[in-house]
Write a structure and sequence with these properties.
single chain, about 120 residues, alpha+beta, four-stranded antiparallel β-sheet, two-stranded antiparallel ribbon, flat
Length: about 120
Amino acid sequence: MRFMMLVKHADDQGAPPKELIDAIGKLADEAVKAGRMVLSGGLSPPAKSSAVRLSRGQLTTIDGPFTEAKELIGGFAVFEFQSKKEAVDSAVQFMELHRKHWPGWDGETEIRQILGPDDFPPCA
């Protein structure tokens, strides 16, 4: 099963410590070598982003920065796991690195299963 992990945090957290970056790099290398990590990356801030919105039948393109949000998605990763429990355990390990190397950081990792064709009823 594939899972996407979304790392969410406040916009004003600042740059992560080098120790955290190094620890995440090591964890990511291990996950890639084990064939669990499919793709990962950090995301540019909302100020450098765009959105396309559909509302009442009208498409609108909006350039950032967007209306102030309490949190943003700062990064993502896609993994291949045997179960949701395995995905949750991996996210706990990732967040433990934050607790150890970036005291005072607040955030979360949201874990969402990526649905495939077998997860939808056939079209009539």
